[in-house]
Every structure is written in C-alpha cells, then in structure tokens.
Amino acid sequence: MENLRYLADADGIILRRDVIAAGGTDTDLRRACRTRVLVRIRHGAYCLKELWEARTREARHLLLSGLAYEFARTDVVLSHVSAAIIHDAPLWDLSLEEVHMTRTDGRAGRREVGVVQHRGQLRKGDVMVVDGRKVTSPTRTALDLTTLTDLEHALPAMDHFLRTGRTSKAELREGAKAMARWANTLGTDLVINFADGRRESLAESRTAVMLLGTGMPAPEPNYKIRDHQGNVLWRVDFAWPELGVFLEFDGKVKYQKFLKEGEDVTDVVLREKRREERICRRTGWRCIRLTWADLERPAATIRYIISVLQGGPVYL
Question: How confident is the model at residue 183 (pLDDT cuts 50, 70, 90)?
Fold first, then answer.
C-alpha cells in the first residue's frame, strides 16, 4: 500500500488488523517503519511518527494504556501508574514504559512486553469508569503506588488526591487495612501518615520528604501569615514560625502560573522578590529559597537548611 495514513485514527494510531483488512501486508508496515512514517508502539499497533514524537511521556502512556486495555484477553482495570496518569496526578521519576492493570478474576498476575497485570482484590468503590474504561479510584490508585515505589515517589500523587478532595486519610487507612497482608505494603502506612493535602505541588511533596532528613522540627506546609485582625496576608510553602524561618520553592511552573497579561517571567520574579521583602519586614522572619537543582543535591541542601534554622546566614 502506497499510503497508510488514511487508516490512522484521530490519535494517529493504525492497527495491523485494519491494514490487513484494507488489503495491506506486514511488509507494508515494515516499510512504513523503515521510512520513518510509522512507529511500532506495541504488538499490532503503530502510530504516525510525527504525532508520536510530539507527545509527552504521559500522553504516550495514555495511548498505550488504551491499547493495552482494548487488547486485554481478560477483564482488567487500569491501575497503579496508568491510573494515576488518567487521574492527572503528578508523577516523578517513575517508569512509564509499562502499562499497569489489575485483573478482576483473582488469578495470578503476569508480565508481558509493555504490560504488567497485577493480582489484587478490588473492593467496592475501588473501580470507576473514565472515558469508557475501568480505572482504579484515586484512593486505590494512591495505595497501589505505595506498593511500587518509596515514600518520595508515592507521596506526590497521594498529596494531590488529598488536596483535591478525591480521597481522605480515613479512606486511605480503610483501604490499607484490606491490603495489610499483601506483598510490598510495608511502606503504605508511612506514606499515608506523612501525606498532607496542604502541599500544593510535586515540588512541595518532594521538599517535604527531603526535610525529613534535617533532624529539625517539621515545618508547617502552606502556612498562612495573618494580620492582627486574623486576615490572611500571604501564604508561604513552608514555615517554622517558632524559628522565624519560611521556605519557598521556586520553579518555572510557579512563575508561569502568576504571569499577568503583558508580563514576562522577569516581572513575576521581581514581584515575588518584593513579596518576600514585605513578609520579612512584617514578621522579622528569614526566607529560604529552593529550586529543582537543590532537590538533586539533598545532602548539601539539608546542611544549608539546618544552618539557617540554627541562625546561620540565608545566603551562602
């Protein structure tokens, strides 16, 4: 076939079965891949190369999870990382190479190329339907993530679901009871206990985990600074009121979020600097500012934070 593009759906997906039904052959598909027209994304499924490469990792995973769900030979529910993406939860440093699904028949899970099928008992309320596909609920998804990874990687999604009201500590603890005898759940209670819906971003969740290593009192997240009448003047990412220190995380997304019409990032940075100065003048506190780079060197960052909390200089 000279051109397979007309067989692509709105997402750029072309299925082998449709090519064969239209009179094409596997040779046609191999030629299209060789000439960089198509990309093979899983057994029996291809995507127009330009559309595939234009997608983010998350968008690619969404496509793959939809295909894996469609081709599953048993009744399954999209779960774990795959469900987290569907629920638009923040993920950090977790592999998106495999689609995760939970079997509903109680039989043993299995792993094949690009797909992991988990065995797990699904309770009432653990499953919902999103865009015609069965997906684990936010509560179950947050709990499942704790069985795959550690505190720092599982926490952002749980914080997100708590903040958006899509789960609660009570629901998480009730779900954890049902999973108590399952494999890889030793860290589940730790994540639940540490989770806090007051954290508003992936960066804040990761910062909170890093601050566990300071040996200092835990800061208050999303701390409100009020005037004498109790009106909220400002909110800061973290604060140690008793030590007179607050912490703000500076990230590109944060500055883009506060852009006003006609402004660039420099305008937002200057406005944020003036805000910091006003907070410091009013409270007498000192400000610690962290960036993504600081999270990548936790030992040095923790030493710096401890120094500031103990009265050392803010600027090194």
Answer: confident
pLDDT at 82: 98
Tokens representing residue 272 in the block: 């944020």
Which domains are assigned to the chain? 5-54 (no CATH), 61-194 (no CATH), 202-309 (3.40.960.10)
pTM of the model: 0.88
- 140-160: pLDDT as tens digits: 999 999 999 999 999 999 999
Which runs of E-coded beta strand occur in the chain? Answer: 13-15, 38-42, 45-48, 76-78, 99-103, 110-112, 115-119, 127-130, 133-136, 220-226, 232-240, 245-249, 286-290
269, pLDDT greater than 80: no
Q: Which two tokens stand for residue 285?
A: 């506190």
Residue 94: pLDDT over 80: yes
Question: Is residue 94 exposed (0-12), middle (13-18) or buried (19+ Cβ within 10 Å)?
Answer: middle
Q: Give 81's contacts (C-beta < 8 A, 6+ positions apart).
A: 61, 91, 94, 95, 96, 98, 100, 145, 148
CB 239 within 8 A of CB 245: yes
pLDDT band at 255 (very low <50, low <70, confident <90, very high): very low
Question: CB-based contacts of 71: which residues, under 8 Å, 6+ apart?
Answer: 42, 43, 44
Radius of gyration of the chain from Cα atoms?
24
What backbone phi and psi angles, to 5 degrees, belong to 58? -65, -40
d(CA 134, CA 119): 16
Number of neighbouring beta carbons within 10 Å of residue 234: 15
Separation of alpha carbons 151 and 233, rounded Å: 33
Residues 6+ away with beta carbon under 8 Å from 20: none
